[in-house]
Amino acid sequence: MPEGPEIRRAADSLEAAIKDKPLTDVWFAFPHLHSFAPTLVGECVERIETRGKALLTHFSNGMTMYSHNQLYGVWRVVEAGEVTETNRVLRVRLAAKDKAILLYSASDIEILTADELAVHPFLQRVGPDVLDMSLTVEQVKSRLLSPRFCRRQFSGLLLDQAFLAGLGNYLRVEILWHAALAPQHKAIDLNEDQLDTLAQALLDIPRLSYQTRGRVDENHHHGALFRFNVFHRAGQVCERCGGIIEKSTLSSRPFYGCPGCQK
Ligand SMILES: [Zn+2]
Fold this sequence. Notes:
4-stranded antiparallel beta sheet, single chain, alpha+beta, binds zinc ion, 8 helices
């Protein structure tokens, strides 16, 4: 399952293909969207925003396409006129002069005005996205301490998109290892230092993953690279304390942690 960093990177490649270019061809499979197609020709995609697994494609006429890929939707970038070989069902095509972006198989697609976007049920439920670079550590901290979330165990809280969007299972385990916290803890139990460390890790780990995951370390690279310290490392030695990393199941998902230093 892709998590926030992978979804943001996919959105980046869609933006790189289509952003700020006048659309020459717009096509929607669903009849309830047909009437929007001609109104979008000549407009541009100004920005593609991610909110967890939802993508918000903002057009220059103020309209926004909401799409949620669920488990099966997939985006592709193609050259203009390129025919793609696929068994998937095409749902959206947004084409500019040189490139087009295609959405296959997704069933959850809407075109919304700004007012409709503001009251969209999914977007109302989902929290701020960890890859929204305007989200600050202070905001994350006050979210952790809010009455709604402060008594929730981290094992479940860190998978709840209502708390923060974009976190998934590998980020959950890596964040808790970095913060040296056991998954049974709740924000209300933490001291000030632990809270600061956790709030910082909730932003730093996803952002480092977004920026560097999969990148090979080269000697001239001075910044940190994302890598797994505990995820899929059961039975291996913890590099912080020398303990042995254990695998368990928490909130119905595999959990990895070090009982030696995650207190
Ligand atoms: Zn350890």
